[in-house]
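::Amino acid chain::
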Amino acid sequence: MKKKFQKKVSREKDSSVGKRKKPVKKKENLSREIRFSRDRVRKAVSWFIFLLIFASLFFNVIFFSKYQTIRNNVQASEDRIDEKLYKVEEREVGFSDAVESFGEDFLEVYYNVPAEKESREKRLDTLRNYFVSGFKIEDLESLEDFKGSRSLTDLRYLETKQIDTNKANLVFEVSYEIKDKDTVSDSVQIVIPVVSDGKGFAVYEKPSLTSRDFTSDITLDDTSLEGEDVSSTEKEQLDTFLHEFFTSYGVSDEKLPFMANLERGLKRKVLSSAVIRDSAINEEGVYQLVVDVLYQNEETTFNSMYTYYLEATKDKNNYFIENIKQGGF
């Protein structure tokens, strides 16, 4: 009986031992799975970090490329602006509207030659101030045999022709009168070579005479208005409106602000006629009108023809002048 019990206990021990070995295998498998999962996580994290670094580098390259492109464009724009400014400064150094006044003052002294010797000497001293330093003012004229006088009667500025960075020719038309044995009047075009230091001007060479015709045979391209044609019915309505408008515009009466975007018009101009020469409706629905207007001076019977370029809008059957252009649209 005792042996049987021992065998039974021994079998129970053996079975218990067998039962304990199975969980060990599960722990080993679990440990392997954990290690495998960790490896996968490490690889995934490593790939993620790699991709993150790669993406960062990629976007940095793109950003740097765009930044460099923008920088180059800005630099190029600055260079172009600097170049234009340099050219403007180089081309127009000191030659403002003041050079016209300088030329007029010079010609006032240059053309007014008195008969008296003492007055002539004062004139030369004054002229010397207009020339560059060292200029031989005595070589400017030869008046030993001239006993009369010369006086400036009219002066008109024509143009400034720049010939160098700091040099230009001033062109004037002058009329003068010489009194000697007889009185002689004449008109000429004179060229004054001037130089500038950016602060003032000086004549650096003797003036010269020229002859230039400023008129030219110019043919303009077709200047017909572009847009939708104005119907004949609307043209009749516009004729009536424009007659009222230019009547009011000629005398600046109280009706004018209700017909046009104007505070005031003309004075003492009586309307004789207003004829639409051309008309069209542009893409914005604005009426563009070219009108020949004949005005008569209120005090006289003298009539003058003028051309007006009008921009008008329409509200129902009422027209309104939005703008008056000069010389075209």
